[in-house]
From TrEMBL:
Coiled coil: none annotated. This is histidine kinase. It is an enzyme of class 2 (transferase). It catalyses: ATP + protein L-histidine = ADP + protein N-phospho-L-histidine. Its EC number is 2.7.13.3. The chain crosses the membrane at residues 162-179, 191-224, 236-257. PANTHER family: SENSOR PROTEIN KDPD.
């Protein structure tokens, strides 16, 4: 390699796995693995294999501290369970594409040829294709020896002790009964083995399985062998039978207890996984922060079986506490004191956990956790802590649920902000379109009015009566057009802002149509307008707005159809509603324009019959007015050409007084 050259290691796909344990040296191992992960920019995972053995309280606390330290070091915490720890580590390493395993040097030593292999040696054999980094243990562990066997057996309880005695008393009675029926001793031994299995299933731990195995041998020897009521026996082979019976019972009971433990661990793991899955699924359907908080607290109640207190951030302040009960008779008053609320406020302000099981406010009734992502805090969850405290992995599930809650709230916030930005952008576009339309499209009639008025002022005495009449007519038409535009602007603005006060009355449609024609531009005289209305159609409407709809629709037909065209206004009773149609036989509207004709400020490319250009407000206003009346404005093609605009209104009930 020449000077200045260097080799860049490809560490993008590196995955480092560190094994968690309750050993005092495990913190050093985690620290070493974390440093490796940072230097290599690798994925970092901490794995704990739960074997089902009972551990001392000091070991539990040490393990929880190691789990917390691994989290703070950036590790993803994973838990699996199984009896064979090296096999579980190897299986996870292969499934997760682990490239390096960091593990401590086992303190166990092989003193002779028949000694069992250490965990490190077994792991090397199980994963020969993965780099294993063994961290030497520089600590003095002479004072720490992890106990085996009986130390992991729980303390005896009166309930399990009496249950064990009862099971074997029943087995002995059954054995005496079977013996009177001249059955062989093999059947009696089977009865006792069945008793050992039942004891393993119905009691907690290995103690009663092993104790039941020994007890079964003594009971069989004392009550069911000759001479009875004695531990002596006349039969030569019975001592061997007793030994085999004891070994069989111990093995059977131990295996049953292990199966029971692993079944419990599997059910616990499946339950926690289901909680996470359900939480994610339900949060995706939540509509607002209140729903998200309710779903989260409900799932935490299922997970922890205790009431939950929640605080949500409202207007940059923490709200009053919401309590979600687990339907048990719990004293919740202590969870809502001013002291507890002050702790919740501290957690909100500092974005750190506090309360019970922590170093800060450890005398609190609850553990307080912030619902936050980075610097955004959306609330605080308070979890009562009693004599039962959740373990590290239950705490991991708890944090995962709260993180899902924070992520859902963050997504809702982002969606709302995007909607606000979209609305602002749309309003800004509408404002720009309005200014453009006013600045360009209103200039023509205003210039016409100004020019005609100037002509009358300066040259009025030199104009003949016919010319003056034409100028007056043009001024009137232009002013009427401007008034109509202003009315449309005011109406659509009030409708969109919700400031338009509606006044619904019952009106005859033929009278409303006749009134609308009286307000139509004088140019309708150049068109053939036909009205066809069924008699006595009484509709429920705001007559001012419906008049404006009819005026706009007829004016629209006049603008876009040549002189001499026919415009037909029809009113009928159809399917229990009043239906009104405005038809014309003009050139019609092309297909590419139809999806946009009801949009505000859309004018299209059609040629207008007069010199005025439309602002594109009329049809948008008509649609809004009809929607206020719980109807829909529809465009259809006329035959053979032209357009049909139709809408419906609710019918009114006619009451006849005799």
């Amino acid at each position: 390699m020449s000077t200045g050259e260097f080799v860049e290691l490809n560490t993008e796909n590196e995955h480092i796995l560190v094994c968690l344990s309750s050993s005092p040296s495990n913190e050093k191992i985690i620290r070493t693995a974390a440093k490796m992960a940072r230097d290599m920019r690798a994925r970092f995972t901490a794995l704990y294999v739960q074997t089902g053995k009972r551990e001392r309280e000091s070991d539990k606390r040490r393990l929880e501290a190691h789990v917390q330290f691994a989290k703070e070091s950036g590790a993803e915490i994973v838990m699996t369970h199984g009896e064979n720890v090296p096999v579980q580590i190897a299986e996870y390493a292969h499934l997760s594409n682990v490239t390096k395993i960091v593990i401590g040097q086992s303190s166990a030593k092989r003193n002779h040829f028949f000694s069992k292999q250490t965990l490190t040696e077994k792991l090397i054999e199980a994963v020969p294709d993965i780099d294993i980094h063994i961290i030497p243990d520089a600590m003095n562990l002479d004072n720490y020896r992890k106990p085996h066997g009986a130390v992991y057996v729980g303390k005896p309880t009166m309930k399990d002790s009496l249950l064990t005695l009862f099971i074997f008393a029943v087995c002995t009675l059954i054995g005496l009964f079977i013996q009177k029926l001249q059955f062989t001793d093999t059947n009696i031994v089977t009865i006792y083995i069945l008793g050992v299995l039942l004891t393993s299933i119905l009691t907690d731990g290995y103690l009663y399985s092993i104790g039941g195995s020994v007890l079964s041998v003594f009971l069989f020897c004392f009550f069911l062998t000759e001479p009875r009521m004695s531990f002596q026996t006349y039969a030569v082979g019975y001592p061997v039978t007793f030994v085999i019976m004891l070994i069989s019972s111990v093995i059977t009971g131990t295996l049953a207890a292990k199966l029971k433990t692993h079944a419990r661990l599997s059910a616990q793991s499946a339950f926690r996984t289901q909680i996470l899955f359900d939480t994610d699924r339900l949060l995706q359907k939540a509509k607002n922060d209140t729903d998200i908080l309710s779903i989260t607290c409900t799932q935490l109640i299922k997970l922890l079986d205790r009431s939950i207190v929640a605080y949500v951030v409202e207007d940059d302040e923490l709200s009053a506490p919401y309590i979600f009960s687990n339907k048990k008779k719990e004293q919740t008053e202590d969870l809502l004191t001013s002291r507890e609320q002050e702790i919740a406020k501290w957690v909100y302000e500092n974005k750190q956990r506090a309360g019970a099981t922590t170093e800060r406010f450890k005398d609190a009734q609850c553990l307080y956790l912030a619902i936050c992502i980075e610097d955004n805090v959306y609330g605080v969850i308070a979890i009562p802590v009693d004599e039962y405290t959740f373990d590290s992995f239950e705490y991991s599930i708890l944090l995962s649920v709260i993180n899902e809650c924070a992520l859902a709230m963050e997504n809702k916030k982002n969606i709302m902000e995007k909607e606000k930005i979209s609305v602002l952008a749309k309003n800004e576009q509408l404002r720009a379109d309005l200014l453009r339309a006013i600045s360009h499209d209103l200039r023509t009639p205003l210039c016409s009015i100004s020019g005609n008025a100037d002509m009358l002022l300066n040259s009025g005495e030199r104009l003949d009566d016919i010319t003056k009449h034409q100028i007056y007519t043009d001024i009137y038409d232009d002013s009427e057009w401007l008034i109509n535009i202003v009315e449309n602007l005011l109406s659509i603005t009030r409708l969109n802002d919700g400031r338009l006060k509606l006044k619904f009355t019952d009106q005859l449609l033929d009278e409303v149509i006749a009134e609308s024609l009286r307000h139509i531009s004088r140019k309708h005289e150049e068109y053939q307008i036909i009205t066809e209305c069924d008699e006595l159609i009484l509709a429920h409407m705001d007559v001012r707005l419906i008049l404006q709809v009819l005026i706009n629709l007829v004016d629209n037909a006049i603008k876009y159809t040549p002189k001499g065209s026919t415009i037909r206004i029809c009113a009928m009773n159809e399917n229990g509603k009043a239906k009104i149609q405005v038809e014309d036989n003009g050139p019609g509207i092309c297909d590419e324009m139809k999806p946009h004709i009801f949009e505000m400020f859309y004018t299209g490319k059609n040629t207008i019959a007069d010199s005025h250009r439309s602002l594109g407000l009329g049809l948008a206003l008509c649609r809004s007015i009809i929607e206020v009346h719980n109807g829909k404005l529809v465009l259809e093609d006329n035959t053979p050409h032209g357009c049909i605009f139709s809408f419906t209104l609710p019918l009114s009930e006619v009451t006849l007084n005799e």
